[in-house]
């Protein structure tokens, strides 16, 4: 049985401490313990009040997520909550840390809530494909009003205690020892009050919302905008509608339970929980011991003030770490800083930060033209354009200029990190930190482990990644790392489909309907078609067939969004793509010149070919051990975490590998075999797909590779191929 409740009595107040490290979820032992301890406190005449708190950094982090989808025995969360709500003695939640999901729902069953300043609350179930199913959808609207409750539940955001006090979710803020303060609070209310309030009885706010259709329509609009394709948000909204319209609280609870089961049984729940655990598993490195010492990162340096450099600098400033940007060109630097300032002003205008916060945060970013100015930083991240010779020159200079124990990191998206390490006297301190654009927004951080990268450097970067609020994933130093290597197959297929008869907007809309946040041709237009075209011209190599249309468009000055025309046309000042019928003659010509006969292509074929290209390459990455994990539990999360946080793959499908698992690897294998009949060179099926499909296995069943295959094939520039 997991978890327990520590029971003690102080001054006539029973203290129930949830002890289920590290974050106190409501596992079976906790539920049992809660029931037993409530009964004990209730039957002890010397006890006049009850304080419920958590041991360590969390109050209660919700239901035990690992139990979803399993057979659960023993008492349910509802049984435990009933004991709390029906207590004749006042129960005070002493929120010492995170009160999330079922944790906040526990607190909402208590008569009163006191929180420490570090405490925070939230109902993040939506991020797991679920709804708050232990009364949250019925009680929170009664406390803060349905409109506010919907915003909290649909965003899943964490709300700090001070704000929760303003909203009326908590009754009092503790400045000192939370348990001592809660005991004093309990004694006070036990003495003064004969009855104690229950949230279930507060009907004023839900009644006031009856007939106000805006509340629900605004919530639907919010869900459509921020949670496209997801199942749970609609169910959360339905629950709140019931809370507003049903007279009987318990009827609302029944509806909540019904809709919760629907979410639980929906495949999106499994997919999203896979990502929850996948992200946590990805942040641990198999052969780097937990106790590996980490360096303190108190100051950072960035080389290059372009979009990436500026975005990375913002990541540090946002969490209070001073950062100094160095650029060799004063004009560039001015432009870069102006762009950062614009970004912050935009956030202030949108109410995402106050003017004072902006002043403080922007004030942490300094800049200059000389490497001497960053001699004292703990980490430097180089973020110049993708050219190995330039990066080598920078790393040599940095090695001289920056203190000996500082980490030197490169934001390369695909260059050889070992080559960078080897040109320094500190190869153990060299690592790749591949951020995704816009770096201050995108969560993915691909951490590239060079052959000589030390454990200390890796452990430091993984922990820094978490502090920077990123989802770090480790890749071996191999061409394309994880994300761009998989992307290559995906864009290859998109381009082949174009040559075979599909049009860009058809490919994009098929994949966007599948759930991708942006189709490949919109993405190529955004990145700029000219990048790859110029790189190919510079290298003097023959373009691959799949880049021929791209080249033909660039020859006609169609570079993408940057000059208003690419695969699509754009109206000045707007990023909305409009089909470009004038391009169709070009597609037809290039298809003909390269021996393709154009044909009708179905949306399903587009989805299968593009997504299975990701899956097949992902399987090869697994086989080679480029992604560091396979085989532990059912987690093949690394590729999935990469694709969801960096490439706009829909979280509710759990990433490409989970998608394949859920479709069935035998189905995937058969489709690849079929595609291979027409294009055997591209569709070389990963051995793993073949072997797992024969035993009806899933990717998580794959054994970890014993030998990691040697790394080869890096280019001097990582912008090439199909881009
Ligand atoms: C729910 O409550 C449903 C109810 O409404 C209805 C029920 C009927 N369960 O994130 P960390 C593990 S749904 C099990 O690295 P941090 C996590 O896997 C739940 N395990 O720490 C990790 O394990 P490991 C709604 C959990 O300090 C370890 O704890 N609640 C749970 O960076 C440390 O986690 C949520 O969605 C859990 N609930 O962040 C909250 N939570 O060490 C989910 C964590 O083996 N949790 N673990 O890798 C969080 O958001 C963060 O963990 C938290 C701490 C902010 C609490």
Topology:
Layout: E1 4-10, E2 13-19, H1 28-43, E3 49-54, E4 58-60, H2 77-85, E5 91-95, E6 98-100, H3 102-109, E7 112-116, E8 120-122, H4 136-144, H5 146-155, E9 159-160, H6 161-167, E10 172-174, H7 178-192, H8 204-209, H9 213-226, H10 232-245, H11 249-265, H12 267-282, E11 300-303, H13 307-318, E12 323-326, H14 330-349, H15 355-362, E13 365-368, E14 379-382, H16 388-401, E15 407-410, H17 417-422, E16 430-435, E17 444-449, H18 455-467, E18 471-476, H19 483-500, H20 504-514, H21 520-527, H22 530-539, H23 548-555, E19 568-569, E20 578-579, H24 584-593, H25 603-624, H26 637-646, H27 656-663, H28 665-678, H29 687-694
Parallel strand pairs: 2-3, 3-5, 4-6, 5-7, 6-8, 7-10, 11-12, 11-14, 12-13, 14-15, 15-16, 17-18
Antiparallel strand pairs: 1-2, 8-9, 16-17, 19-20
Helix pairs in contact: 1-2, 4-5, 4-10, 5-9, 5-10, 9-10, 10-11, 12-26, 13-14, 19-25, 20-25, 23-24, 25-28, 27-28, 28-29
The structure holds (S)-3-Hydroxyhexanoyl-CoA (3H9).
Identify the notable features of this structure and list them briefly.
20 strands; alpha/beta; disordered C terminus; 723 residues; single chain; binds (S)-3-Hydroxyhexanoyl-CoA; 47% helix; 29 helices
Give a quick summary of the entry.
This protein has 723 residues and is an alpha/beta fold. The longest helix is centred in the C-terminal third of the chain and has 22 residues, at 603-624.
What does this structure look like?
- By secondary structure, the protein is α/β, with parallel strands linked by helices.
- The protein is about 45% helix and about 10% strand.
- The chain is built from 29 helices and 20 strands.
- An 8-stranded mixed sheet has the order 13-12-11-14-15-16-17-18, with helices on both faces. A 6-stranded mixed sheet has the order 1-2-3-5-7-10, with helices on both faces. Strands 4-6-8-9 form a 4-stranded mixed sheet.
- α13 (about 305-320) links the parallel β11 and β12 (about 325).
- It is globular, with a radius of gyration of 28 Å.
- The two termini are about 55 Å apart.
- About 50% of the residues are buried.
- The structure holds (S)-3-Hydroxyhexanoyl-CoA.
- (S)-3-Hydroxyhexanoyl-CoA binds near residues 63, 77, 100, 130 and 280.
């Amino acid at each position: 049985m997991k978890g327990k409740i520590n029971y003690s009595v102080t001054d006539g107040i029973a203290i129930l401490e949830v002890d289920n490290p590290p974050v106190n979820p409501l596992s079976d032992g906790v539920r049992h313990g809660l029931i037993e301890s409530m009964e004990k406190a209730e039957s002890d005449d010397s006890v006049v009040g009850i304080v419920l708190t958590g041991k360590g950094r969390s109050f209660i982090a919700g239901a035990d997520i690992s139990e979803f989808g399993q057979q659960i025995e023993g008492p349910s969360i509802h049984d435990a909550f009933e004991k709390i709500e029906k207590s004749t003695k006042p129960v005070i939640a002493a929120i010492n840390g995170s009160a999330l999901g079922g944790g906040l729902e526990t607190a909402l069953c208590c008569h009163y809530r006191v929180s420490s300043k570090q405490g925070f609350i939230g109902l993040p179930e939506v991020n797991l494909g679920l709804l708050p199913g232990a009364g949250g959808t019925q009680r929170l609207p009664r406390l803060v009003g349905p409109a506010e409750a919907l915003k909290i539940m649909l965003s899943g955001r964490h709300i700090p205690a001070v704000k929760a006090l303003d909203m009326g979710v908590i009754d009092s803020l503790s400045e000192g020892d939370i348990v001592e303060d809660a005991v004093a609070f309990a004694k006070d209310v036990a003495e003064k009050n004969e009855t104690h309030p229950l949230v279930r009885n507060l009907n004023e706010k839900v009644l006031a919302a009856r007939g106000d259709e805006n509340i629900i329509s605004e919530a639907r609009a919010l869900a459509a905008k921020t949670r496209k394709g997801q199942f749970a948000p609609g169910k959360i909204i339905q629950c709140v509608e019931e809370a507003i319209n049903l007279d009987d609280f318990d009827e609302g609870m029944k509806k909540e339970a019904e809709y919760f089961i629907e979410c639980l049984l929906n495949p999106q729940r499994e997919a999203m929980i896979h990502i929850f655990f996948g992200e946590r598993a990805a942040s641990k490195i198999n052969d780097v011991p937990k106790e590996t010492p980490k360096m303190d990162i108190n100051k950072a340096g960035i080389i290059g003030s372009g979009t990436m450099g500026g975005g990375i600098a913002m990541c540090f400033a946002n969490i209070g770490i001073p950062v100094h940007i160095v650029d060799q060109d004063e004009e560039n630097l001015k432009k870069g800083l102006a762009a950062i300032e614009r970004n912050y002003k935009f956030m202030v205008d949108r109410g995402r930060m106050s003017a004072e916060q902006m002043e403080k945060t922007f004030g942490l970013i300094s800049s200059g033209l000389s490497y001497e100015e960053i001699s004292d930083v703990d980490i430097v991240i180089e973020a110049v354009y993708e050219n190995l010779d330039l990066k080598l020159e920078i790393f040599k200079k940095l090695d001289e200029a920056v203190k000996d124990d500082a980490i030197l990191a490169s934001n390369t998206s695909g260059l050889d990190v070992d080559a960078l390490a080897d040109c320094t006297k500190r190869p153990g301190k060299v690592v790749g930190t591949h951020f995704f654009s816009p770096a201050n927004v995108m969560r993915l951080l691909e951490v590239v482990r060079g052959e000589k990268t030390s454990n200390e450097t890796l452990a430091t970067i993984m922990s820094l990644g978490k502090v920077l609020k990123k989802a770090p994933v480790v890749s071996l130093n191999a061409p394309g790392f994880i994300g761009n290597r998989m992307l290559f197959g995906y864009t290859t297929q998109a381009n082949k489909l174009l040559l075979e008869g599909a049009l860009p907007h058809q490919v994009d809309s098929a994949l966007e309907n599948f759930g991708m946040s942006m189709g490949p041709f919109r993405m190529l237009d955004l990145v700029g078609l000219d990048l790859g075209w110029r790189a190919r011209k510079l290298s003097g190599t023959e373009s691959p067939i799949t880049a021929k249309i791209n080249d033909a468009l660039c020859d006609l000055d169609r570079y993408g969004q940057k000059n208003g025309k690419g695969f699509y046309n754009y109206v000045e000042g707007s990023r909305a793509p409009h089909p470009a019928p004038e391009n169709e003659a070009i597609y037809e010509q290039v298809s003909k010149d390269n021996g393709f006969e154009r044909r009708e292509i179905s949306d399903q074929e587009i989805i299968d070919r593009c997504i299975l290209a990701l899956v097949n390459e992902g399987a090869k990455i697994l086989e080679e051990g480029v992604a560091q994990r396979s085989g532990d539990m059912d987690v093949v999360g690394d590729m999935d975490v990469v694709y969801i946080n960096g490439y706009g793959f829909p979280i509710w499908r759990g990433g490409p590998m989970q998608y394949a698992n859920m479709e069935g690897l035998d189905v995937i294998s058969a489709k690849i075999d079929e595609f291979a009949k027409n294009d055997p060179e591209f569709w070389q099926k990963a051995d793993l797909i073949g072997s797992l499909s024969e035993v009806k296995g899933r990717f998580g069943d794959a054994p970890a590779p014993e030998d990691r295959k040697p790394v080869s094939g890096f280019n001097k520039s990582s912008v090439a191929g199909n881009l």
